[in-house]
Design goal:
Distance between the termini: 37 Å
Helix content: 25-40%
Oligomer: single chain
Number of domains: 1
Number of helices: 3
Structural class: alpha/beta
Order of helices and strands: HEHEEEEEH
Strand content: 15-25%
Bound molecules: zinc ion
Shape: globular
Number of strands: 6
Strand order of the largest sheet: 1-5-6-3-4-2
């Protein structure tokens, strides 16, 4: 595939994820903001893991064919396409009640959220404090 076709496909995948994020109800998740410093840090760390080959893609995600992809921030070692989304790692009992940003354990208080990074939607569990910080930082 040539460079322009690759860029087109990447843009299309990014648009598709943007639309999916706006239809948050479909995912049953609150759209979050990537400008929270702890989230920005976690995303940067994840991107480094991608670059160093420590993130395992499902069999349908190919480097020369960008398409919408999904990652769970509580276990970012795997990335999946829409068809494989159910194979993302489920959070365990501790993880399901822990904030992915400040790592505090707050039973029953975690908001399941989703943020977009290009063609990737990242699932993230956020505690009330971090959630308020996230909303306050909204531009
Ligand atoms: Zn797949
Ligand atoms: Zn938190």
């Amino acid at each position: 595939m040539n460079r322009a076709a690759l860029d087109d496909q990447l843009a299309a995948a990014t648009d598709e994820q943007g639309a999916r994020l706006r239809r948050g109800a479909e995912l049953g998740l609150e759209p979050g903001e990537t400008n929270h410093p702890k989230l920005a840090e976690a995303i940067l760390k994840w991107q480094q893991q991608v670059l160093t080959g420590r993130v395992r893609p499902c069999g349908h995600l190919l480097p020369d064919a960008p398409q919408p992809a999904f990652v769970a921030l509580w276990d970012p070692s795997r990335i999946c396409c829409l068809a494989c989304i159910s194979r993302l790692p489920e959070p365990d009992q501790i993880e399901a009640h822990s904030c992915d940003l400040c790592r505090r354990y707050l039973r029953g208080q975690i908001t399941p959220s989703v943020v977009q990074v290009g063609p990737v939607l990242l699932f993230v569990g956020v505690c009330p404090t971090c959630w308020n910080e996230m909303q306050a930082g909204k531009s």
